[in-house]
Fold these 2 entries.
Entry 1:
Amino acid sequence: MPVLDRPVDVDGFWKDGYTIVKGVYSPEEIQAFRDACRKGGGANGGDLLARPLLRSVLTDGAMIGIAKKILNSDQIWYGGDSSFTINSTGRGWHKDNADRTDGNAPDWKSDYTQLRFGIYLQDHTEHTGGLNLRRGSHNVVPLSEGENIYVKSAVGDVGVWSMRITHSGNGELLKDGSTTDPNDAKPVDPSLLTEKDGDRMAIFAALGLDDEHAARYTDYLKTRTYMANVWRHGQYDDAARQAAKDAGLILRDVPSEVLNDPNAGKNAEWAPIPY
């Protein structure tokens, strides 16, 4: 089981837009996650809750406990947004929230309560391929603002960041300890990069408060083609619902909402939603 009493830098999260909780999982637990990812989580589709071999990432108390501390609430909500990746190639600055380009939109009217968790299943303290973030960019709209940070996460760490923060996958860690700009089209000399630590695997999940930000984010996510397809092919069974209940999660069964909804998933790319 994960170590549930690790300190969480709550003030740092709200100031910088992210924090890393150290040593939550043992190397053996991380290896078990890697094995489960290779097996598809025990299902052919769906978010983590619909995948029996990866369901515990949501329900073992680690992410939930961190979310409770950051959000100062025991009422933590989950709306079906989670995934795992193996050797993904996506790269480039972006935000995950619904209102990414409009500072007058609802996402920017109050503290943002939707959190993205990331567990990188290999070392990135000395290896390339990790996460880039722009420090403090959860409070600004432009993607160009904020210090470019390469997150040097170790095996067993849990990262958590605001879904308003500017970030990029597949970061580059150079041998001199610096990083590159993910939007730079010019490839870096491979001899300057640190090595990868085997196959790059990561697990992601969104948790938050059951509030107007959660409702708006879900309304947005239901418009996205890739996510609607994930949910349509990954309906929750009784075991999944019970596991969420036993963990104390407030569950919104979005997979059932989109199953027969012809309007879900119409946007292949991000597009603003009305307000």
Note: The domain at 10-258 is CATH 2.60.120.620 (Jelly Rolls).
Entry 2:
Amino acid sequence: MFSKEESARIRKEFWTSFGKSFPRKWLLYNTKIKGFSFKFQADRKKAFVCLDLEHPDEVANELLYDQLLALQQILETEYLPEVIFDDAHQLESGKYIRRIYVLHETKFSIHNKNTWRDCYEFFVETMNQFELFYYEYEDFIKQAI
């Protein structure tokens, strides 16, 4: 078991190491669509790459999600076969969002440095595919709002 301070230090080291090992400017929040962002997530038990839809206007949020559902077959076939669509994902805060994500299937813990390299490679490969998909269908996605 780790103290809060040690756990925070390890998390910081994990993300710093990732940035240094794979120095690249990721798309993440720069989609030019409000509440539409790509994220890397990692904790004690799992890691994943996700696209979160958190537009403050619920109608716009639903329209964006529906637009992505229209592209689901393409996303699964050409980019990310393991992608999961979740229209009611609950965050730790209790807030519900729409999330599209790919889970890192290999055993992982942010507290185990021996699992970091596989996770980093998963992050790079998966986010790259998400970005390629987004750039290819950006105009279609933006038509939703």
Note: Helices lie at 4-21, 58-70, 72-79, 116-142.
